[in-house]
Amino acid sequence: MVKQHKKESKSHLIFRHIMMLIGATLAAIAIELFLVPNNIIDGGIIGISLLVNYLTNLSFGILIFIFNIPFLIAGYRHIGKNFFISSLFSIIALAFIESFLHHILPFTNDALLATVFGGLLLGVGVGIVIRNGGALDGTEILGILLSKKFPFSVGEFVMFFNIFIFGWAGFVLGWEQAMYSIITYFIASKAIDLVGQGLSGDTKAALIVSNEYEEVADAITQRLGRMITKLHGQGGYMDHDKDVIFVVLTRLEIAKLKSIVHDTDPNAFITIMDAQEVHGGKFKTAIH
User: Fold this and answer.
1) Range of 190's domain?
2) Mind listing the pLDDT tens digit for each residue in 191-219?
3) pTM of the model
4) Between 137 and which of 44, 80, 171, 285 could a Cys-Cys bridge form, CB atoms 3.0 to 4.6 Å apart?
């Protein structure tokens, strides 16, 4: 008999969407009031959208939505429905808010200031969205899919993708602006890591200690689509036997994992660590 697990509470769902709206707003401010006026871009789909916007004067909001569509569809198939909905909401919010900021005067015309503060705001905004289960850029989804077929990590694919974007920016915007763009990307990446609480690695490992071990393990398997490993442990204070859940996942699944565990056992103890390399098993084919 398949157990029924609690769905995400309405209050938590509303909170997540408010946070994603805040993240999209910060990203829109960074793009429209810092980066675009100074001909500076970021990496990924955002960078491509900014370059095409510069060349054609088409709306950035429309471009980032169109360019992200195939990645959102892939995310729906390989990461899950909640990720798809959260990402779609965040991207639409970014496009909508950006259109209102289009005619506002930029905060600065100094390229260095725009690079630093634009990258910082963009990274914080994107980090908030990722932390709450969504994404503003489909590059990582592409990296996840390609890493299943080729012997390279998600991060290596994203870096390779961005080399072409910044090279293209050098020819279109000038090499000085391309160098500013690389600095922006670096700052934004570090801000994402900071906001996301250790999202620097492509792969994460989680240890979960819960008195509701069976329910939590079953919920992770059913709702996250990940196989878990059962570890036997012993409490250091009471010397009671403990069953510990070990699961490997991608960084885009962290928010969903925490939500699943909290819904099943609010008192569970979770530790999330970087997993530098993952080999063997069915990890790369288990993304749902």
Assistant:
1) 10-195
2) 877 786 544 456 788 888 888 888 888 88
3) 0.68
4) 44
